[in-house]
Amino acid sequence: MCENREALLQISQKFTEDTLKCILKRASGSDSIELVDYEVTGSSIRGGDSFLSTLSRIRVEGKINNTPHTLALIVKGLPANIGRRKTFRSTQFFRNEVVFYNKVLRKLMEFQEKKKPKKSFQEIPRCLYALADGENDFVVMEDVSISGYVSGDRKEGQNLDHCVAVLQVLGRFHALSLAMKHQDPQGFSMLSASLEETYFSHELKGWYSGQMKRFCNVAMDAVSKEYPNSIYEEKLKKFADDTLYDRLVEMALPKEPHAVIGHGDTWAPNFMFRYEGDSRSAPVGTYMIDFQLARYASPVLDLAFFLFSCTTQELRTTHYQHLLRTYYQSLAELLQDLGSAPADVFPYDAFQKEIDTYIAFGVGFSLESVPFSVMDEEETPNLDLIEGDKAIPIEQIWHVHPIKSKKGRLRLADNIKFAVDNNYI
């Protein structure tokens, strides 16, 4: 196992065979374990973490109470390239995710277990180990791909069945926060305060504002080509002015009484789907992954980012109100099951007000996510070309160009059209 032992240390100097033994204990719930063998391989997974992390797979062979046991793991570690780490602030994102798994999610699940709902929230793969010290960070998750789960497609807009599946999961996830805040406000306050804003903060404006200007230019190009000399150009120009980042910061701040612990990065690759048979049109199971942008804010931020990053104009035009009701019904059902009346905690008219107040966040964040979603693989930057151990402006390595295809441009331009037509911007 010498070669694999070195592979563990390449993930993190604090990832050892003792770590794997601990993972076996946590996964099985038994202290009677034996580590027999393991294999570390690279991963072809690409998604929201491709800038912030490296990804590996580990297949563990062990014994639990003398019975053979196999465990499949996905491991996220810090990039070896120090300049890349610092440019994309990887350690801050890891710190936030580790807090989410080790503290926030654990307490939310403990609260749920006490309430014993009929259909408990279980739509996050188990985190079996998470460490963040700023140098040796890593997160170990169960690999649900062996159960047939595959990542959502970032390039194509999601169909109705996938959107319903995602919004039901988001509604149930947000219900945990609302119920715990209602029934254990002091305990919940400690959880919400432990998360940090990793993307939209006044302190981060210098890190992101240069890149945001480039995304705004890409959006203007798309709207100008697809809807020339229209009100959509005028509205986008006003929306995407120099104050946009500051306005997104304000929307990302928690406002009571309806703020929840949210996912923060709800684009398609951060959802995994399982299907029956050969058809992939309708998922029968859905997981959420990757919580490095987890934040305490309006639940609409997660909802809005998904709707403007992962749906097409045709689907929104036909099913928008249905999707909003799907989300709210899912939230309300688990909220009621957890012992809090939706009419008291988060009535539908309050949800509608949150939509009106915060839906523009999804429009603003989609100026980044849509160009990245429709980007061809060969256009994605090689971040390990960053030289030295200093951070560089992200726009120097993450080059953003006007969207080449009409279909891709419409994904972005139609976001603006939909937002303007509905008086969201």
Short description:
The protein is of the alpha+beta class and 425 residues long. 50% of the residues lie in helices and 14% in strands.
Write the layout of secondary structure elements.
Elements: H1 2-11, H2 17-28, E1 33-42, E2 54-64, E3 67-77, H3 82-87, H4 90-115, E4 127-131, E5 138-142, E6 150-151, H5 160-183, H6 185-194, H7 205-226, H8 231-239, H9 244-252, E7 260-262, E8 271-274, E9 285-288, E10 295-297, H10 300-310, H11 313-337, H12 342-345, H13 348-374, H14 406-421
Antiparallel strand pairs: 1-2, 2-3, 3-5, 4-5, 6-8, 7-10, 8-9
Helix pairs in contact: 4-6, 5-6, 5-11, 7-8, 7-14, 8-14, 9-13, 10-13, 13-14
Helix content: 40-55%
Enumerate the spans where pLDDT stays under 50 for 5 or more consecutive residues: 44-49
Order of helices and strands: HHEEEHHEEEHHHHHEEEEHHHHH
User: In this structure, how is the largest beta sheet organized?
Assistant: 5 strands, antiparallel
Query: Strands of the largest sheet, in order across it?
Result: 1-2-3-5-4
User: What structural category characterises the helix and strand content?
Assistant: alpha+beta
Rounded average pLDDT: 94
First and last CA, distance? 58 Å
Proportion of beta-strand residues: 5-15%
Query: What would you call the shape?
Result: globular
Helix segment count? 14
> Count of DSSP E strands?
10
Rg on CA atoms, Å: 22 Å
Please give a structural write-up.
The protein is α+β, with helices and mostly antiparallel strands and 425 residues long. The protein is built from 14 helices and 10 strands. Strands 1-2-3-5-4 form a 5-stranded antiparallel sheet, with helices on both faces. A 3-stranded antiparallel sheet has the order 6-8-9, with helices on one face. The protein has a two-stranded antiparallel ribbon with strand order 7-10. β4 (127-131) and β5 form a beta hairpin. α4 (90-115) runs antiparallel to α6, α5 crosses α6 (185-194) and α13 (348-374) packs antiparallel against α14 (406-421). The longest helix is centred in the C-terminal third of the chain and has 27 residues, at 348-374.
